[in-house]
Design goal:
The chain has two domains: 38-63 and 170-224 and 235-257, Protein of unknown function (DUF541), domain 1 (Translation Initiation Factor IF3, 2-Layer Sandwich); 65-168, 2-Layer Sandwich (Alpha-Beta Plaits), CATH 3.30.70. The protein has four helices and eight strands; from the N terminus they run H-E-E-H-E-E-H-E-H-E-E-E. The strands form two sheets. Strands 3-4-2-5-7 form a five-stranded antiparallel β-sheet. It has a three-stranded antiparallel β-sheet with strand order 1-8-6. It has helices at 2-24, 79-99, 147-156, 172-198, and strands at 50-61, 65-76, 107-120, 126-141, 161-168, 202-213, 218-220, 244-256. By secondary structure, it is an alpha+beta fold. Helix 2 runs antiparallel to helix 3 (147-156).
Amino acid sequence: MRKNFVLIALSVFVIGGLALMAVNQSPVMAQGNNPNPPGQNMANNQPLRTLSVDGTGSLTLVPDIAYINIGVNSEGEQVADALARNNELANQIAEALKAAGVDEKDIQTANFNVYPQQRYDNNGQVTGTFFTVSNNLYVTVRDLAKLGEMLDDVTASGANNIYGIQFDIKDRKAALAQARDLALADARQQAADVAKVMEVTLGDVQHINVSQTNSGPAPYYGMGAGGYAADAAASPVPVAAGQITISYTATLTYAIK
């Protein structure tokens, strides 16, 4: 009986000791290859020092393409009459554009509407209904030297409105890339200049941000300006394409030593 009691006591002691060791054992946690939190210098576990600079790049170019929106409006007592008249005018304008050197693929119908309108007497009473047809032609002009003469021709052919002219650059993608590269180069040079003055050494680039500004097509409103008073039939409409400025900004952040 005593022998059994001793064995039981020893078993309880061993189990208790094992449990105590398990409680005192420190947990082991998996760690990644980089125990340093972001933004810390791995060498001395100090916050990473950085230098941020902004650069700009811009190109000023002469437009070499234009987009015009030509409106043709017609009215008639019957829908068929208004449509027939509008089709006639639109065909005349299209032929005038082709004669001026515009490719057929550069002439597109952008908007076409037919709607009734009421006619009123002096007392505000409805006296009848007529119909209006509006048709917009969106035209790409690739020879800007002919633009003024072309506008004369389309107005003489029946165009009621020139809603706007936008000038642009044919190879816009290349111009944007060049402006972006200029902005990045400017930011790099500024970073080098600042580092030299502050007597620090530039490390790796930590952050890059680029964005374009003021790079849309240049709008043009109105066909006459600068005291133009001559008869349109005697002299082409004066059109000045001006210049387009394409700009980019770039922000670079460097680690510094």
